[in-house]
Amino acid sequence: KLGALLLFFMISSVLSVFAGNFILKYEQAVTDSYGNEIGYRTSSITNISQLPAGSPWRNYLNLKLDSGKTIYEYASSISKNLNKDFTLTISDRDSNSYSCKTRSGYNVNLYSYVNNYASDASKTFLFLHEFGHTTMLNSYPPSYDFNDLDYGSDGVHYLDEILPNYNSAWVEGWANAFGAYNNRGKVFSIDINSVSSLSFLSNNTFEQMTRNELFVSKAVYDFMKRIPGGQASVYDAFA
């Protein structure tokens, strides 16, 4: 009994050490009296109601995921399962969203263009894709990070692009698979199970296909759906 009690306290202590905190930041555009943007002000918020009335970020964070939770509810609850703090920054800047790992924790940065997508599936996928990068970092050994990525001369990636190396396709494909798994099987508004989704690859070699993020995401997605134990088994195997 004493051994069991000690084990309970050891497990409880480990969980309390590794449970991540959720930090939400808002980078708001500051305008002059004529409405011109003159800078940005970043603040931490603890509730969606603290966002300006009419802000598209209110609607965005309230979008429902497959789980029935809103993006805000999902982010705040899932962070407790991470081994580092999770910071979600929503920004009025016009830039490309990205994710990274730092000493202080995991960071997902979403920028204003995500609100321009017409479908909710595309909007929620953007968050889930970026959070998928966090999930990958959290599942892999602590020494792992996103190194040796190459997106070509333009520095961006597209679903129908043959990327310069396998690593880039693997990292983006993983995030796409995670997004689709939690987004009704959709990458943006594309059904990942449809035959037409990969039809653009019909004239490519297998080597070229493994450098395409949509092909990789389809493979990982199928692992998650078909392997006994699903998503959790895939995480354990890769970790």
Characterize this entry briefly.
The protein has 239 residues and is an alpha/beta fold. The chain is built from 8 helices and 7 strands.
Q: Order of strands across the biggest sheet? A: 2-1-3-5-4
Rough outline: globular
Derived from helix and strand composition plus strand pairing, the structural class reads alpha/beta
Number of DSSP strand runs: 7
* DSSP helical segment count: 8
Which percent range fits the helix content? 25-40%
Protein model, in words:
By secondary structure, the protein is of the alpha/beta class. The protein has 8 helices and 7 strands. It has a 5-stranded mixed β-sheet with strand order 2-1-3-5-4. The chain has a two-stranded antiparallel ribbon with strand order 6-7. Helix 7 (213-226) crosses helix 8 (230-238). The radius of gyration is 19 Å and the shape is globular. The two termini are 33 Å apart. Mean pLDDT is 89; it is low at 1-16.
